[in-house]
Amino acid sequence: MAIQFKFPEDGWQTILALAFFLYVDNAAAGSPGARIKNAIGGQGTMDTVRKLVVAVHVVEALAMLAVNLKRGSSLATTVKWVLSTFVLGYPSWVTFGSMYYGLNSHAELNNGVCL
């Protein structure tokens, strides 16, 4: 079975979280976003969260690259899955797992069945 790309149905949740993070991170002084940023520890906390999330998403994207290469995916499909995983993270893994490993729950994916 050739691997095909499918946009993750739950991807909108990650996009919403990213939009909220960007709003808070770039909020003008005195705005609700600035108050949220200060309540969680200020710019230092935002920088730490950003670095951690980017690092996790890079690792996830590299793992998706490895899985696609192992399964003989085309270059175009591999690029789509890797970029989707880098931007959206976990929802891409859930979609990929449900399509190619017969997984139908987050619990099954968390057991490492994909690799």
Task: Write up what this structure looks like.
With 115 residues, the protein is mainly α. It has one domain. 70% of the residues lie in helices and 0% in strands. It has six helices and no strands. Helix 3 packs antiparallel against helix 4 and helix 4 crosses helix 5. The two termini are 17 Å apart. InterPro entries: TMEM254. Pfam families: TMEM254 (PF14934).
Short description:
The chain contains six helices and no strands. The chain has 115 residues and is mainly alpha-helical.
Write the layout of secondary structure elements.
Layout: H1 11-25, H2 32-39, H3 43-70, H4 75-88, H5 90-100, H6 106-110
Helix pairs in contact: 3-4, 4-5
Pfam family, one: TMEM254
InterPro entries: TMEM254
Transmembrane segments: 52-69, 81-103
Q: Class by helix and strand content? A: mainly alpha
- Written as H for each helix and E for each strand, in order along the chain, the element string is HHHHHH
Shape descriptor reads: elongated
Mean pLDDT: 90
Biggest sheet architecture: none
Keywords:
115 residues, membrane, mainly alpha, transmembrane, 6 helices
